[in-house]
Amino acid sequence: MNITDKFFLRLIWVVTAVVLTVVIILKLAPAPQPIPSFVYVLPHLIGGINALCSVLLILSLIFIKKKNIQAHKVTNVITFCLSAIFLIFYIIFHLYEKDTKFGDIDHNGVLSAAEAASVGAVRYIYYVILLTHILLAIVVLPLILVSFLRGFNMQIEKHRKIVRWAYPVWLYVAVTGVIVYLMISPYYNF
């Protein structure tokens, strides 16, 4: 491993730690007031970006299986850029909007016993999907960054080794991001 690789690997861990720290702070910090109106569009854009990333990741796999390396690279760069935009939108949205309660039909921020009963076990399915989505999103960030480093440096064997783990996790996170959005969006309070 050369000095450049060491530098970028350290940078990847720093970026991962910073992103994780920012997300944790977002959960703990009070929301600034007033809330800009554009914030309410962000969840829909985030859901759309996740859907588009899911499709692009599948296309990327198809391109590499067909040995179309250039299309594979371009698709991955686009997916990576969209994921970065997703992260920015996610941070902005959660800066202002803290939690939406799954099943909160009357949008008052309180899940009553009747509301919980009306959604039943689906609520637990939602939380399992959400929890795995969040945990794997944390894990996948450094995997994605390392796979990009290896791919751009044309370290093909090292790239393949990391992508065996990064790709299915990234695809799972993108697809479950769409599922989480579709499941929680009826309960947004806006």
From TrEMBL:
Keyword Transmembrane included in the entry's annotation: yes
Keyword Kinase: no
Alphabetical keyword list: Membrane, Transmembrane, Transmembrane helix
Name listed for the protein in its UniProt record: Putative membrane protein
Transmembrane segments: 7-29, 41-64, 76-96, 124-149, 169-188
InterPro entries: DUF420
